[in-house]
Amino acid sequence: MERAALTRRGLLIGIGAAGGAGAMYAAMGALGLAPSEQDKAFTPPRQGDFTLRGKGSAKVVILGAGVAGLTAAYELGKAGYDCTVLEAREKAGGRNLTLRGGDRLPELNGPVQQAAFGEGQYFNAGPGRIAPWMLTLDYCRELGVPVEVFVNHNAMAYVHTGGRTMRVRAARADLYGYVAELLAKATDRGALDRAVSAQDRERLLDFLRRFGDLGPKMDYAGSARRGFATYPGLAEGTLDAPLSLTDVLAAGTGRLVLNDFGHDMATPMFQPVGGMDAIVVKLTEAVGADRIRTGAKVTGITTLADGVEVVWDGGSIKADYCVAALPPHVMAKIPHNLGAQVTAALKTPVPVAAGKIGLEYDRRWWETEDRIYGGVSETDLDITHIWYPSHGYHSGRGVLVGYYNTERDAELYGVLSPEDRRRRALTQGKKIHGEKYRQGVLADVSIAWHRQPHIEGAWVRWPAFDSSFTLLQRPAGRVYFAGDWLTQLIAWQAGAMESARAAVTQLHQRAVRSA
Amino acid sequence: MERAALTRRGLLIGIGAAGGAGAMYAAMGALGLAPSEQDKAFTPPRQGDFTLRGKGSAKVVILGAGVAGLTAAYELGKAGYDCTVLEAREKAGGRNLTLRGGDRLPELNGPVQQAAFGEGQYFNAGPGRIAPWMLTLDYCRELGVPVEVFVNHNAMAYVHTGGRTMRVRAARADLYGYVAELLAKATDRGALDRAVSAQDRERLLDFLRRFGDLGPKMDYAGSARRGFATYPGLAEGTLDAPLSLTDVLAAGTGRLVLNDFGHDMATPMFQPVGGMDAIVVKLTEAVGADRIRTGAKVTGITTLADGVEVVWDGGSIKADYCVAALPPHVMAKIPHNLGAQVTAALKTPVPVAAGKIGLEYDRRWWETEDRIYGGVSETDLDITHIWYPSHGYHSGRGVLVGYYNTERDAELYGVLSPEDRRRRALTQGKKIHGEKYRQGVLADVSIAWHRQPHIEGAWVRWPAFDSSFTLLQRPAGRVYFAGDWLTQLIAWQAGAMESARAAVTQLHQRAVRSA
């Protein structure tokens, strides 16, 4: 979720993009957060780690069957812990939500939508992509969830700014071309003689020529890299003229062509085959579906000297430990005896709004007509992005993500009826793709994460990673907290998994000591 | 094939990369090659186009069951032409060659290799990737060949130059960072005041800050975009320091991180599921396997007033027309009566050497240890590239392409025995991946395309697209030529397909006129 990436780096640590890496190193040290390799090492609890007391198993109640809760139950289960997962929603998975034909989607203060997608079609309403370095991919391997490439960057996709639509590849070629040309000129004029040695200058010019596809006079006059008006075949292709420097800078195009530059957004990315919830399905299987009680809303949490008691709307449960894997703002509303500091800390992170719409079309015109196979078009419209499906290429139908927006844009769409969301999304998308964008729509479902029952936010933003953050990384009595919101991978499933592992490690060490 | 891309743009039209786009426009006009939309339009021959004479079908003999020959037979078959395809090799496909366990690979003046890959493993010895704008993808759709993403660019892959190995993402981040910083400095110093307006300057600086991930003083001091020494989890990740400008320029790294900039190499690219030869299989099915005679070496071609006669080593065949879809240097050696000019033209393009090795490993260490899922590592070693498989992620085994080299490097490997090729490839790859690169190799097969019987070259290079090129785009008597070598898409299957369509169109127009 690239907005999340900006949020994390920009707003959360209050430094980020604007501050540069140097500032980040410093801040990390100041907060005592500089991680070590040790943080990444994880040894799953094993049956043989200790002889569990009593009936041979400590009992753990886990609040929330999202990715953090399920991962905790899965890892604890490896050592034979007796886990019960309480989930307030109708099904497990939390924000890992894939919608298919027949699925119901209720909304706070809104109508219940019924997805009417065709057979085999799906819409990842929550997370949609996995970076190769993320723990999520390790769990896919361990659980046997097959993965395929999620096309995040597509040179053939569009960038739409200031009313102008152009291919990403053309925008990049022009920007790179002018940057290379300008720097070559400045170098030639000796403007950088103090900064760059004579030897480096020659090498730099060689790089700039290649980087910008410059002509013999180190000028940029367009490039095949922009793509062609007519692609080569029997004869050479025909090229469109490049935009002027002024035009390519004017529309803010440059901001929208860097989507794959971040460490979490770089090519390639991955997705489970058949829908993101394949991870939920496999985790549920491994945990045991009978251990997960859905439709169970927790109403009270009491930590005791010898255990923990959790009350839910259908009964109560006593356990040795609790893992609270709920969103912090939801958890904060549940009566508990963990102290005012914990409540204050839980209330610190701010929920962020985000929304998505899935639009099923009767034909894959983006492939046959626009030659866009997967990827994302970036816009300065309130839809922000259009995602093209990275699966089912050349099949009959397909589901686009017609918007994926956050904050103010998401709130704007969130207050609309599902019909009005669709209408608005189609009107905006038409500006990029023309009239065909409004034709042949078979079904649609839209989600406003900040209006989802028992979730109430797409993710959270910490005003600062201060003592509230570190407080909740440790247990309160016998209650351990877990969730992406307790990591530096907010809005990523990998964060939920890392956090679950940390909670499991702490809980298990204590259980072994007291066994 | 990126070397091919450079060849086409650099050497073939004699202008290319060094000349820039401006020069290319001019050259296109001068050669009369500027294509029109009309060139791209293709109407397949249909049964109803005319009532074919005699038994209702004109007879066509097609020389070569490579992609051009098969495409011609397929398109002609749509109108009921009676096609016979003569193929000198043991099986159809030509350079579209996928090797699996049990396959034999003979070589001119070399031993026969036997591929010993495990069940389900394969190695695309020829073409491996398809750009989304290419005709190849349309044929995949039309023929029902499922496609998946071929990861061509991978930020996690390595660039190895001057003895230094670094992640592609780190090399790019450093190069972009310094380019942005230097241009920002030059702009600040007023070096570009004549070239850039005041308004553009502010916008340019904004872009440069984002493009280079610069700090508040517009300096580059490293970036999360480089990737992390320890990736973020519970705590922020730890960053390695960036290379110095001198270091990042010194090794020529910049030349090797632009692999996806070209119009034919941009992300995303595609491959047929299960092996490139799925295209051959489906074309063969559509043409009818009984129409393709393999092991049939053509020894004479005679164009006559009323037809064409082709002699092969097992007999002769008379037909109304012939489509010669052989490599030009192979065709040139076959006795014919098409005239000295045709022979001279066929001898004009120069065959290019290229080689590949497929290495099957017992585990996918590149995924589990290096976090490289598909993609290409670029090197300045004689192996040039290492390709990681874009399929079978997380499965037990996998086949790497241990080298894909051309010209001198390919000739160097070509003269070695298969064992020595493997040994050398493993020694080179170890420089990047360490000792594990030489461990767990289960099987290997290497191909030297310039030593392949009846092919004798990976592709060709035209010294110039002169009258020889245009001569062969027209029929000689009743013989039509086809192949990627007759297009501006040399070394791409799309070229073979475009050329086949052009030959079919010309042949069909003539057949309709004379019907």
From TrEMBL, chains A, B:
InterPro entries: Amino_oxidase, FAD/NAD-bd_sf, Flavin_monoamine_oxidase, TAT_signal. Signal peptide: none annotated. Residues 67-507 form the Amine oxidase domain. PROSITE patterns: TAT. One of its GO terms (molecular function) is oxidoreductase activity. PANTHER family: FLAVIN MONOAMINE OXIDASE, LYSINE-SPECIFIC HISTONE DEMETHYLASE 2. This is Monoamine oxidase. It comes from Nonomuraea wenchangensis. The lineage of its organism: Bacteria, Bacillati, Actinomycetota, Actinomycetes, Streptosporangiales.
